[in-house]
Each structure stands twice: as structure tokens, then as C-alpha cells.
Design brief:
globular, 204 residues, 6 helices, 6-stranded mixed beta sheet, alpha/beta, 6 strands, 27% strand
Amino acid sequence: MPVDLHFEFKVDHQSKGRGAPSHTDLMAISEDVCIAIESKWTEPSYDTVGTWLSKGGDLPNREKVLKGWLALMRLECAPQSLEEIADCEYQMLHRAASAYAAASSFATKKRPMLAYLKFTSPETPVFAASTEYYVDALTLLHKLLRPMDLQTYLVEMKMAPSEHFRLIADRPKANPATGVAVRGALQETSLFSFSGDKVYRIGT
């Protein structure tokens, strides 16, 4: 079955509020499914909905943006108030909404799916969000939003960086020279080796 892969897949909240779009790491689109794939390794946990709402000086605008994401999900049992979902991770919520938006953008109906890839390695920093965090956060998302048709998975995978990765690991980010070095390394060899995976199905 052919699959189209879209990196940094952009989805707008489609509300009257002002806010940044969601950029999913990878959207995999096949004949009958759209899978929003988010990969994590060294990242810490992200803000909850409640924390995100409290930031900035325009709460009504942020509420409009949040309601836009919720509308994209077309929930059968939408939350009665935004306080009900205050403990959900905000990024996770709009990644889920992106899966729905992608799936509904085609004339032929596609199923939305959400998959988180959590890589673990000896180099994983102590501040990185754990596998348990993602299991709990995804489970909470399902519990509070009750998205009946959103299949959700967390895949934990062990990873070992190669020596080639270590040679470029400390280069400054958002630097043109770093981009050249990374592309060159990817063309020459593998930067990681992978072994063992564990799949968690969420919401069943």
C-alpha cells in the first residue's frame, strides 16, 4: 500500500484566534489512514492546557485557539468546559487534532491515528520526559477527550548513537554549517543503531 510521508506537517487551528499552527514531525497518509507521528528523545514534558492558557496576556484569544483545536477533533462528547481538560498536554492535544484535520481533508474518509515514538539511550538526559510520562499523558488525553475513533500508540525504542553522531552532537543548532554537517553525515553512514521496541496501545 503506497504511503505519502510529510515532514513537519502543518495544520492551522482554524479558529478566529491568533496562534501558531501545529507542526507534526511526520504525517503518514495512506489510502485509508492518516498517522500523526511525533518523536521524542531528549525533550522534557510540555505545558499542560492549563499552563498554556495562563501564559500570555490574552486569555480569550488562547481560549479561541484551544476551541479551534477541539473543533477539529469533532468529539462526540466534547468537554463542557476548558477546565475539564486543563491537565492534558497542550502539544499532544493539537497533534491529535492535526491527525483529525489531515484525515478529514480528503474526499474519501480516512481514519486518524496518533503515534508517539519515544527513544531511549544511555545519553538520554535526566530532564527528558520518560516513557511512563507519555503513557500517562496519552492515557489522560483519551480519558478526558474520549476520542472514539482515534487509535493511539506509544512505541518505545532503544537507541545507541554512533561515533559519527557524537562528532556532530555538540554543534550549534539553527546554524547553516551544522545543517551541512548533518546532511553529510546522514549521506555517509547511520547515526544511530536501534534495538528492541515495546508498543503500548492507548485508550483500549
